[in-house]
């Protein structure tokens, strides 16, 4: 084996011909987008679309400057800097074909916790037109009880008092917008790229929630001037593993310390509402629409819910990855039936989308044997996912008289999972959830009170008061606790 070449600007020309690389002159690209939260998903999605755009010869004003606000972002900052912000996207097709492409659209990276002023100045710079975010649901600082901005968070209180030394994203955005307003510059757009329903509306609510605590006049200006487009984002991006790094070394003699792996499918449906202009992402596959809501609902209640259905049942059964579940006939059939009987009948029609085709494509995507999306990643944060992915389907079916059995079995299995933190054989499962302890407490009490798990109000709301749901849940709980081999119940429900 040859000595691998480190990925950086200087070495780009020496890479194997099989790796696609940027042909545009990166030294001419300027920062038009500041992105907070550079993880795998941003790099397989927004940065990917933007790279395609730069490659197409479009204006070079849309380079991306990454921002990390938390200590764990430091590793990414360090690696990207060493690589001149280049990284490899490893696109894995279901038939085993692999495409590798070096992405060049990220041109800088800053750590807000080291030097907040530089990050604020970068956001306030006249060239910056968009500040985009992938900060995960947890990053929006939502009060679980009220759904409003959580003003009691000590970091929020710190940021209200220390406008130029913020810790959280809201402080950075607000201070940068203050500078722009004072300098007579137009407001940038704040664009959420998180997989959250009405992500733009939520971001608006939270940014205004913070700004009002700090400066009412500024909050009014933000309310008037800043746009917060909603968007549906989609591309399955599993966690990068050492074997992906090794693959680039052995197949391409390329040393990339943090490549990104993803599926070929990619979708971005965006509300066309940008206060300071935007890239022509529609030229490279994104879709601009008037109303994103139906697309979001379809994605959250089919793709993401489907992931959770397989993720939870599969974990309790003892599977490790999504593709493993989909290649089990029973799990695949259960997923199909969940779509056909419960999820799809309560979805609104989506313009230009053939739902049957969409469902079939999902099953094909999930079955991609090269993606090996880990169930631990899927189940991570279920307490904030299920209320959006699964509960709306249950609630709608409760009011329309539709089936709720399949979804309710999943909730019962999730109770077992939260109680035991183990699969049906007793092998321990890694549980990562903000509410891990409360879920565990509530689930543990199931043997005294079958409905006790439903007491976690921020997840279930008043669902336990619905008689049909309570009865069905109680039946599923008895089944799962009597026989944790969930496939027995899956089979009997399908019969
Ligand atoms: C997954 C998503 O986290 C989850 O539960 O369903 O990360 C999913 O892979 C993406 O939304 C795909 O776009």
From TrEMBL:
Mannitol dehydrogenase C-terminal domain sequence ranges: 291-479
In short, the EC number is 1.1.1.67
Gene Ontology biological process: mannitol metabolic process
Q: Which PROSITE patterns match?
A: MANNITOL_DHGENASE (PS00974)
| Listed Gene3D superfamilies | N-(1-d-carboxylethyl)-l-norvaline Dehydrogenase, domain 2, NAD(P)-binding Rossmann-like Domain
**Which GO terms fall under molecular function for this chain's record?**
mannitol 2-dehydrogenase activity
Keyword Oxidoreductase present in the record's keywords: the answer is: yes
Pfam families of this UniProt entry? Mannitol_dh, Mannitol_dh_C
Which stretches make up the Mannitol dehydrogenase N-terminal domain?
32-282
SUPFAM superfamilies linked: 6-phosphogluconate dehydrogenase C-terminal domain-like (SSF48179), NAD(P)-binding Rossmann-fold domains (SSF51735)
* Taxonomic superkingdom: Bacteria
Query: What keywords tag this UniProt record?
Result: NAD, Oxidoreductase
Which family does the similarity line name? Belongs to the mannitol dehydrogenase family. UxuB subfamily.
- Name the chain's protein: Mannitol 2-dehydrogenase
Question: What organism is this sequence from?
Answer: Rubripirellula amarantea
């Amino acid at each position: 084996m040859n000595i691998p070449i480190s990925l950086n600007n200087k070495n780009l020309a020496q890479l194997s011909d099989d790796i696609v690389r940027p042909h545009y002159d990166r030294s001419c690209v300027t920062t038009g987008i500041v992105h907070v939260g550079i993880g795998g998903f941003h790099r397989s999605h927004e940065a990917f679309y933007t790279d395609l755009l730069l490659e197409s010869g479009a204006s070079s004003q849309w380079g991306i400057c990454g921002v990390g606000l938390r200590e764990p972002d430091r590793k990414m900052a360090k690696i990207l800097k060493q690589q001149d912000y280049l990284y490899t996207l490893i696109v894995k097709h279901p038939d085993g074909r692999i495409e590798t492409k070096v992405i060049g659209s990220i041109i800088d990276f800053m750590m807000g916790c080291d030097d907040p002023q530089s990050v604020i100045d970068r956001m306030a710079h006249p060239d910056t037109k968009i500040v985009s975010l992938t900060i995960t649901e947890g990053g929006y600082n939502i009060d679980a009880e009220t759904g409003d901005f959580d003003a009691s968070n000590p970091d929020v209180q710190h940021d209200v008092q220390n406008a130029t030394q913020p810790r959280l994203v809201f402080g950075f955005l607000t201070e940068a917008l203050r500078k722009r307003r004072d300098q007579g510059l137009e407001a940038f757009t704040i664009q959420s790229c998180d997989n959250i329903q009405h992500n733009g509306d939520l971001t608006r609510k939270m940014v205004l929630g913070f700004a009002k605590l700090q400066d009412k006049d500024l909050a009014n200006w933000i309310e008037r001037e800043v746009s917060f487009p909603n968007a549906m984002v989609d591309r399955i991006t599993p966690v990068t593993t050492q074997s992906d790094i090794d693959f680039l070394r052995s197949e391409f003699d390329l040393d990339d310390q943090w490549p990104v792996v993803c599926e070929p499918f990619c979708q971005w449906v965006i509300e066309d509402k940008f206060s300071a202009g935007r890239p022509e992402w529609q030229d490279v596959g994104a879709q601009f629409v008037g109303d994103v809501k139906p697309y979001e609902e379809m994605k959250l209640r089919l793709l993401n819910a489907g992931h959770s259905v397989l993720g939870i049942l599969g974990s309790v059964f003892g599977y490790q990855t999504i593709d493993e579940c989909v290649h089990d006939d029973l799990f695949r059939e259960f997923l199909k039936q969940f779509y056909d009987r419960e999820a799809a009948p309560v979805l609104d029609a989506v313009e230009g989308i053939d739902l049957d085709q969409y469902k079939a494509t999902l099953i094909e995507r999930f079955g991609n044997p090269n993606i090996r999306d880990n169930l631990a990643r899927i189940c991570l944060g279920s307490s904030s996912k299920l209320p959006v992915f699964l509960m709306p389907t249950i609630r709608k079916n409760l009011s329309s008289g539709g089936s709720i059995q399949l979804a309710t079995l999943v909730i019962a299995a999730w109770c077992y999972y939260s109680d035991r933190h183990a699969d049906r054989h007793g092998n321990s499962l890694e549980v990562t959830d903000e509410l891990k302890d409360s879920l565990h407490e509530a689930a543990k009490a199931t043997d005294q009170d079958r409905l006790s798990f439903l007491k976690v109000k921020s997840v279930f709301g008043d669902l336990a008061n619905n008689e049909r749901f309570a009865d069905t849940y109680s039946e599923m709980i008895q089944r799962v606790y009597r026989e944790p081999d969930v496939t027995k119940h899956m089979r009997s429900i399908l019969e």
